[in-house]
């Protein structure tokens, strides 16, 4: 497994704040907060990217872990990158990436908390 795609870590309130490891994602239509260090390319619009351009990345450490792709109303997925990774983008405007999926792990979609916000 890529060093950037490590196991998620959550804090268990019943365990005095100690970190614990888990590999299970939410199974319903919800999300849980996870801390995971991952280099995500900076946000851009697909149409403005030059073919073959190098990506500048941001280190992001907080994500919403979503366990069902049908939870999303308006998220698109990139083609698979390096046989194991897909990026999540806004399906309307194609701005992204807003998160990623390790395709070797079924039903785990990571959405960067710093790249999305909830609008009621």
Mind explaining what this structure looks like?
- The protein is mainly beta and about 120 residues long.
- The protein has strands spanning about 10, 20, 30-40, 45, 55-65, 75, 85-90, 95, 100, 110.
- It has a 6-stranded antiparallel β-sheet, with no helix packed on it. Strands 1-2 form a two-stranded antiparallel sheet. It has a two-stranded antiparallel ribbon with strand order 4-8.
Radius of gyration: 15 Å
What separation lies between the terminal Cα atoms?
38 Å
N to C succession of SSEs: EEEEEEEEEE
Alpha-beta classification:
mainly beta
Task: Output mean pLDDT.
Answer: 77
Question: Quick one: how many beta strands?
Answer: 10
Indicate the proportion of strand residues: 35-45%
In terms of per-residue confidence, which ranges show pLDDT below 50 for 5 or more consecutive residues?
1-24
Strand order of the largest sheet: 3-5-10-9-7-6
Percent of residues in helices comes to: under 10%
Enumerate how many helices there are, as a single number. 0
Label the overall shape. Answer: globular
């Amino acid at each position: 497994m890529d060093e950037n795609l490590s196991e998620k870590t959550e804090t268990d309130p019943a365990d005095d704040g100690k970190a614990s490891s888990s590999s299970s994602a939410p199974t319903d239509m919800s999300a849980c907060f996870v801390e995971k260090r991952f280099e995500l390319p900076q946000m851009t619009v697909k149409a403005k990217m030059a073919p073959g351009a190098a990506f500048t990345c941001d280190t992001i450490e907080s994500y919403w872990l979503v366990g069902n792709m049908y939870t999303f109303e308006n998220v698109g997925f990139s083609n698979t990158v390096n046989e194991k990774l897909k990026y999540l983008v806004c399906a309307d405007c194609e701005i992204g990436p807003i998160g990623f999926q390790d395709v070797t792990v079924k039903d785990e979609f990571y959405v960067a908390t710093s790249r999305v916000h909830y609008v009621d």
